[in-house]
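Notes from the 1:1 (GR / supervisor)

We went over the backlog. Supervisor wanted to see one worked example end to end before approving the batch request, so GR pasted a single chain during the call. The sequence is below; no edits were made to it. Supervisor asked that the structure be written out right there so they could see what the output format looks like.
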Amino acid sequence: MGHERVDGLLLDLGVSSLQLDTSERGFSFRADAPLDMRMDRQGGLTAREFLEGLTPPEVAKVLRDYGEERLAWPIAKAICRERDAGRLRTTGDLAAICRRVYPRGPQRIDPATRTFQALRIAVNDELGELSRALDDVPQGLNVGGVVCVISFHSLEDRVVKQRFSAWQQAGQASLLKRKPVMADEAEVAANPRASSAKLRALLWGVRRQRSTERRSRHHRNEP
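Structure output shown during the call:
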């Protein structure tokens, strides 16, 4: 954020629908494209270059930490084996590796989903970027300002939830809602990608009275 404070801040995290639907960006496993995945294509390593420098245990750690992938180790070994053989160049190559590792039969989500998420987060340091953005909130929001964060997976939401909770416990801010707001059935029907979205909102610099405290005072004042 700049030098001036603002009254509201909205963080809409992760990859956009435009980026997902632009196959050459390399975010989607539904099309065959260069294995890129960079948010900023002007610099940094592509996903393919990122994987070139990792050992199987390091790949497995990325898949576990950022994708919560239960088959992280066999997928990591397969990725490194295909990479070393020169057969890991595109999103289609990576998706095929993941699908071969998973048992045959119907799956709730595509077997490539968590691996693609993990690599995208690692390539773009998404959790680090989120933490740095939240670091700016105390200096960037006016008293009474509101910060809203929309997250799309549990790793992001955990960072936001913990930071919001810490601010509230320190008396620096107050949650506008105790639980995150989720998309309703109508919104999910119109936009299926909203199904995993969670919106958390915080009021900065104002400590709201809890309903239990208000009720307690009300009862004490009764004759």
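Supervisor's comment: The chain is about 45% helix and 15% strand.
Batch request approved.
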